[in-house]
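Data availability (excerpt). The following record was deposited with the supplementary files.
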Amino acid sequence: MAKEKVKHLTGVFASVFAHAGHITKQEAQEISGLADHEFEKAYDSASKIAEKTMQAGGKKMDKFLEHFGEEIDHYMDHFGGKLFK
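Predicted structure:
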């Protein structure tokens, strides 16, 4: 199960780069190693993170880390815990 969590979060992280135009969506999926259906979930999460980050004022990297951290906590909580217990 831990491997799948990491693959999902890797897909979200790589997909943020795709949303920012640094890599393609296909490259993000290759990086994640996720199947199409699972990758679309990660890509959708990345879309929300990228949108929130771009709409935020101030330091964009701080906002990205905040929103990505929320995704990590949310995803890990769904599977019974936090990344750092």
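Summary of structural features: The mean pLDDT is 89.
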